């Protein structure tokens, strides 16, 4: 359904929050980065995984200087089923200078053509490279890197199922931080003999601005409580209205688009019968809508793709 709205119906700028978000870099990430660097002499190719919904905002540009260097490199944009397929050529064009080898995957889909492409491409790139100290090695080692919660472990498991006919080798979770250390080698293929080092998700210690941080958080690469689900829900509403993506109106049975997050969340709480009981100053109980739970429902609907296929970096891709 289309809506005819005045240009000034919605906010043109999102008033940001405490800038501590852009300085958040937990200690285990620094430790993990050092472990990754110590393994590099044993690595033949880097497989860097990021979220296709934030192909520019979501990547850790520091990897180029700290990990990937001169190694053969493949950029995997995972969760591609959550974006419009028509956006893929523009994404590839925007990234091609720094990332000439881009693969889109849906790692939870074992029949995904992208998962099938990674292994042959890695073979080709390694074959064309100077392996230096590993020139005589009979096996090949990949290292998978990326920011938290982009599906690295799911991708490893999908590749094992595809090429080794074996199941899970590493834990998978819906929150960032499941993989905390560089693991022992995980076998991917018998002939030829390929292994992969799993690694923890590493954010850039210098997130350039708060809006980039909010996009990272919306895609669950930063834990929700670091920002607050109310703020994340408000930013999501701002972004949807700014891009005129009004699927949320039908999804939550609203009358029309709305730029007031409190009204949206109150409505979501009401239609889902989510309430909280609190005491007033006279010690009487009051029933109020559970806005926190409503914010969680709103954010989850985006993450599940229920609000449409959305790429949060649409504006940045257009600028390119």
TrEMBL record:
Pfam families: MMR_HSR1 (PF01926). Gene3D superfamilies: 1.10.1580.10, P-loop containing nucleotide triphosphate hydrolases (3.40.50.300). GO terms for molecular function: GTP binding; GTPase activity. It comes from the Eukaryota. Residues 33-205 form the CP-type G domain. Keywords: GTP-binding, Membrane, Mitochondrion, Mitochondrion inner membrane, Nucleotide-binding, Transit peptide. The keyword Ligase does not apply. This is Mitochondrial GTPase 1.
């Amino acid at each position: 359904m289309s809506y005819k709205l005045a240009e000034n119906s919605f906010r043109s700028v999102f008033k940001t929050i405490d800038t501590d978000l852009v300085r958040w870099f937990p200690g285990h990430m620094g430790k993990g980065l050092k472990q990754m660097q110590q393994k590099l002499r044993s690595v033949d190719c880097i497989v860097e995984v990021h979220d296709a919904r934030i192909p520019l905002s979501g990547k850790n540009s520091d990897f180029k200087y700290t990990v990937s260097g001169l190694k053969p490199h493949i950029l995997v944009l995972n969760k591609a089923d959550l974006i419009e397929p028509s956006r893929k050529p523009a994404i590839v064009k925007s990234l091609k200078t720094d990332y000439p080898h881009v693969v889109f995957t849906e790692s939870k889909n074992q029949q995904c053509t992208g998962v099938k492409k990674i292994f042959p491409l890695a073979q080709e790139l390694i074959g064309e490279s100077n392996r230096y100290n590993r020139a005589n090695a009979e096996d090949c080692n990949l290292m998978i890197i990326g920011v938290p919660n982009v599906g690295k472990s799911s991708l490893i498991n999908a590749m094992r199922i595809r090429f080794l006919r074996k199941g899970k080798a590493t834990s998978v979770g819906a929150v960032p931080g499941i993989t905390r250390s560089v693991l022992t080698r995980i076998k991917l293929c018998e002939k030829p003999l390929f292994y992969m080092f799993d690694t923890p998700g590493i954010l850039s210690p210098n997130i350039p601005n708060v809006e980039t941080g909010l996009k990272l958080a919306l895609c669950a690469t930063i834990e929700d409580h670091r920002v607050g689900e109310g703020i994340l829900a408000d930013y999501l509403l701002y972004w949807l209205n700014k891009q005129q993506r009004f699927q949320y109106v039908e999804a939550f049975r609203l009358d029309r688009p709305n730029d007031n997050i409190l009204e949206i969340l109150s409505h979501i709480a009401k239609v889902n019968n989510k309430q909280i009981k609190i005491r007033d100053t006279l010690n009487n109980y009051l029933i109020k809508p559970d806005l926190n739970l409503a914010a969680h429902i709103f954010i989850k609907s985006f993450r599940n793709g229920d609000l449409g296929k959305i790429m949060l970096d649409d504006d940045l891709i257009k600028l390119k």
